[in-house]
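Deliverable D2.4 — example input (structure tokens):
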């Protein structure tokens, strides 16, 4: 079961910053997850549609210029990074999960991934995910070699057949919705199951018991550090 640092290691450092990414890798995360918007043609790493929660700015991200966004303090003096800067910070020491947040992000993300592949990254170490499954389909149409992950808010009636039709590599589901039947159905269809957000060691042990392939966590050391007892029943 792989450990995916959620927005870096946001339990320790300001989320979606280079500092948070570095912390996640230092704590043993196998992968790091970040969120992206496109602003003025540049891919910025940011989660919310508004600035107030995580920066000293105000207003909607997509209404601002790239230059303005780069003046903001994203916590502990960190700037809102570009996706290029995150790729450079990771430097192939872990996998990178890029979640598409804003509109029209698929094409610039694919272009950047191709550029990073030329610099030595492997397709197997990059995953593009989104709740917007139309954008995932757009990614696959642009470059079928890029792995995609379908984010879902709940468990669909037909379980994971939709993700198989989209050509996804994985399906990402909340810890509150996942169960053994869902995991088994995904695996039978050749899909990986990644669960968000798993912050307690006992919950991580239960995810291992269910057979999930990876978990997103704000505290990578709680998943990457301890040896989990997969037979432990956990919270369910």
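Example output (designed residues):
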């Amino acid at each position: 079961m792989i450990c995916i640092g959620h927005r870096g290691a946001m339990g320790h450092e300001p989320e979606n910053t280079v500092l948070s990414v570095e912390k996640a890798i230092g704590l043993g995360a196998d992968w790091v997850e970040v969120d992206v918007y496109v602003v003025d043609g540049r891919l910025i790493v940011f989660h919310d549609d508004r600035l107030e929660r995580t920066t000293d700015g105000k207003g909607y991200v997509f209404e601002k210029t790239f230059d303005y966004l780069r003046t903001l303090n994203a916590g502990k003096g960190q700037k809102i990074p570009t996706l290029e800067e995150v790729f450079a910070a990771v430097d192939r020491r872990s996998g990178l999960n890029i979640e598409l947040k804003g509109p029209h992000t698929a094409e610039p993300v694919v272009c950047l991934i191709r550029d990073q592949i030329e610099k030595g990254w492997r397709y197997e170490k990059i995953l593009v995910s989104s709740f917007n499954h139309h954008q995932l389909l757009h990614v696959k149409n642009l470059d079928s070699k890029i792995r995609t992950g379908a984010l879902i808010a709940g468990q669909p009636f037909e379980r994971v057949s939709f993700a198989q039709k989209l050509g996804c590599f994985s399906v990402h589901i909340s810890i509150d919705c996942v169960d053994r039947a869902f995991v088994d159905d995904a695996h039978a269809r050749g899909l990986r199951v990644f669960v968000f957000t798993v912050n307690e060691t006992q919950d991580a042990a239960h995810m291992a018991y269910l057979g999930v392939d990876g978990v997103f966590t704000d505290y990578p050391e709680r998943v990457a550090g301890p040896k989990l007892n997969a037979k432990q029943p956990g919270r369910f």
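Residues 74 and 228 are 34 Å apart (CA to CA).
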